Amino acid sequence: MQSDRLYRRIVEQIEDALLRGELRPGQRLPSERELVAQFGASRSTIREALRVLENDGVVRSRPGDKQGPELLPFSTAALARQMTRLVRFEQITIAELISSRMIFDSAAARLAAVLHTADELAEMEAAVASMNAAMPDDLDAFGQADLAFHEAVARASRNTFVQVSDAVVHDVVLSLITDDIDQAQNQVSFMARSAEFHGRILAAIRERDGITAARLSRQLLFDFYANHVSAEQRVLLAALVDE
Amino acid sequence: MQSDRLYRRIVEQIEDALLRGELRPGQRLPSERELVAQFGASRSTIREALRVLENDGVVRSRPGDKQGPELLPFSTAALARQMTRLVRFEQITIAELISSRMIFDSAAARLAAVLHTADELAEMEAAVASMNAAMPDDLDAFGQADLAFHEAVARASRNTFVQVSDAVVHDVVLSLITDDIDQAQNQVSFMARSAEFHGRILAAIRERDGITAARLSRQLLFDFYANHVSAEQRVLLAALVDE
DNA sequence: CTAGGTCACTGGTCAGACCAGTGCGCTTCC
DNA sequence: GGAAGCGCACTGGTCTGACCAGTGACCTAG
Fold first, then answer.
1. Chain A residue with Cα closest to B159
2. One digit per residue, pLDDT tens: chain A, 243 residues?
3. Do A161 and B83 contact (CB within 8 A), yes or no?
4. How far: B38 CA to D18 C1' (Å)?
5. Which listed site, A116, B37, B130, B229, has its alpha carbon 20 to 30 Å from B88?
6. CATH number reported for the structural domain that contains residue B150 in this entry
7. Residue A1 resides in a domain
8. β-sheet bridge partners, residue B97
C-alpha cells in the first residue's frame, strides 16, 4: 500500500533530482500545469509539493513568471528560520542568548585567528578602521562597522553552523534589547571602549593567538550586555569570562 | 495591496496563536472544512497552509481522524532536517559539524563546571560509573551512558540554546557517520580511553575548573572524530585544540 | 450486553474555472 | 529602421465542487 502521500513523493523526486545533479540551482522547473502533465497528478497536489519545497528554500514561484518556478541556490535561510523558531518557542531568556553569543563569537574568533586569510584579515582591519572613523558621533556607522567586523570574523571561522547561529542570535538579541540606544549619555565612552576592544581582538587574530582572541570576545560581550540582565542571571554570563 | 499570499497569512495566524498561547501543543485544529469557514478561504488554500505547518513540524494531519489536525509539541526535528539537507547538498561539511560539537560541548562543560548543582553532579557521576561498568564488551550500554553524561552536562549548562544545538548536531553527526561501528578491532582500547577522558572531565567539573573541563571536552571529541575527516579538514578541528 | 453494520465525517486527490499579473511579439507611429 | 504602445497567451493564486478510502461513534440485531 502506498501510504506515502502523493505530494510527498513528488517533493522527494524533485529533491532527489537535485541531489543527483539532474537539476541545478538557477534552472527553472516547468510551470505548474506542465508538472501536472509530467507527474500525472492534479494541480492541487503539485502545488502542495511546491509549497513544501518553497518553504524549505528550494524553489521560488512568482506569479506571471513565464520561465516557471526558480530553483534557488542552497542557502542557510531555512536553517536560520528554524533556529529563530527554536528561540521563539523555547522561551529562551535574554541571558541565554547573550551567553550563546559569547560562545559563538569567541569560537569564531578562535577559529578565525588560526584560519584567516590575508583578505579576511584586511576586511577585519577595514571594519575596525571604520569604527574608529565613525567614532565621534556617527553611532549608526559605528554599529554597521561593528556588525561587519563580526561577520568577517564569523566567515573566517570556516564554520557555517557557527556563522548562522551567531547571526541568528545576534539578530534576536538586538530585536529584544532596544534600550541600548537609550544610553546616549555614555555613548561616546562606550564607542571608545568598544573600538579599543575590537582593536585588541583584531591584534590577537593577526598574531594568530586564538585563545586571547576568544577571551577578549567573551569579555567584550560581557562588558556590553551584562547590565542588561538581572544580577541573578548575570552569573550565567560571568561563568564564561576568565578571571 | 495585500501581496502576501493568503496561505502564508494563515500560516502566520496559526503560528502567532501558538506563540501567544491561544493554541497549545496537544490540542486539535478544526477540520479542514471548518477552517475553510473560519478563515473564509478555499480548501486548497487551507491545505497549502497546513502542508507548510506540517513541514515545519507544527501540526500533523491524519486521514479519518475525527479530532482534526494535531498540534505537535515543539520539536527540533525540522531543524535537524535542515542541517541534514545542507550537509547532503554539501553546504556544510561533516568537519564543520564536529567542530560545532566541540564548541557546544566544551561550552556546556565550562558552564556546567561553574553552575552545576549537587544533583546534576551526581547524575554525571552515575553516567561515568555506568560507562566503567559497561566497559568490557557492552558497547551499547557504553554509548548510552556516554550520551547520558553529555546530556547531563548540557542540562547543567543552563543554556537551552546550547543544549538543543548540541543535541541536534550530535544526532546529525551520528546519522552521517556510520562507520564508527567498523572500528570493532580497537573497540576496547577506545572505550578505555574514552572512559578515562570522561572521568577527567567529570573531575574538572567537580572542582569547578571550567577551563580545564572545556579543554578536555574539545580534546575528547577531536581524538574520537579527527580521523573521520580528511587531513585538509582536520585543521578546522585542530584549531580548537589547545597545544 | 455484545457483535456487527451503518453512516457521517475525516483528509487526500482530482477536475475545471476565474483572476490579476507578466512578458513576448506584433502593430503602429515617428 | 527604430521606438512606443497594445494584445494576448501564459503564469501562479484562489475558488468551487466532487469523489474516494479510511475512521470511529452510534445504532441495531442477536
1. A96
2. 456 889 999 999 999 999 999 999 999 999 999 999 999 999 999 999 999 999 999 999 998 888 889 999 998 888 889 888 888 887 788 888 899 999 999 999 999 999 999 999 999 999 999 999 987 777 788 888 999 999 999 999 999 988 988 888 888 777 776 655 555 556 777 788 889 999 999 999 999 999 999 999 999 999 888 888 888 888 889 888 886
3. yes
4. 22
5. A116
6. 1.20.120.530
7. no
8. none
Tell me how many domains chain B contains: 2
pLDDT digits (tens, 9 = 90+) for B181-205: 555 556 778 888 889 999 999 999 9
Asked whether residue B58 is assigned to any structural domain, the reply reads yes
Statement to judge: residues B184 and B210 lie in one domain: yes
Q: How far is CA B228 from CA A158, B90, B223, B225, in A?
A: 18, 16, 10, 5
Give B109→chain A minimum CA distance, Å: 11
- The cell 513523493 sits on which residue? A9
List the single best residue of A8, A46, A160, A215 to mutate versus B (max B Cβ within 10 A).
A160
Residues 6 or more apart whose Cβ sits within 8 Å of residue A100:
A165, A169, B159, B161, B162
* Nucleotides in chain D near protein beta carbons (<7 Å): 10-18, 21-25
Based on the domain organization, do B108 and B197 belong to the same domain?
yes
B137 and B24 in a single domain? The answer is no
User: Can you name the residues that pair with B59 across neighbouring β-strands?
Assistant: B71
Which of the residues A6, A85, A115, A117 would you substitute to probe the B interface, choosing the one with the greatest number of B C-beta atoms within 10 Å? A85
